[in-house]
Amino acid sequence: MSYEEELFSKDEATELDMEDRLPPGDYSMTIVKAEVRTKDDKKWLSLGFQINDGAMAGRTKYFSFFLKNGHPNPNVCSIHARIRRSLDSALCLDKMTLENIIGRQLVAKIKHSEKNGTTYENVEQFLPAR
After folding, report:
1. Alpha-carbon torsion 22, 118, 38, 89, what sign?
2. In this model, does residue 107 exceed pLDDT 70?
3. Cα gap 115→109, rounded to integer Å
């Protein structure tokens, strides 16, 4: 069997990817994984969230946020700094560490954005758990 026979077509892959995305809205989530990752000159925080409610309850979604000066584009850093501030505010922590955010609950406001014909699932901001 060749790899071509095993691969999804572009349309099938796009359809499966869209089914895995959260529709825009607010989602109660619990942080289940946190790590700082680096590659080349980029550095980011990778967080795994378990969805607490709705049709995707129990599933884990991953979102990444560039750290200070973690991306060469200052606009990207600015957007990610705003999201990071909302994360700090939602968790109500004096000092956030990778260890003390595991198990913390919050609400993630999810939005979709489009660039060059591709739709992306993004966190717009974090809010305190309800």
Report:
1. negative
2. yes
3. 20
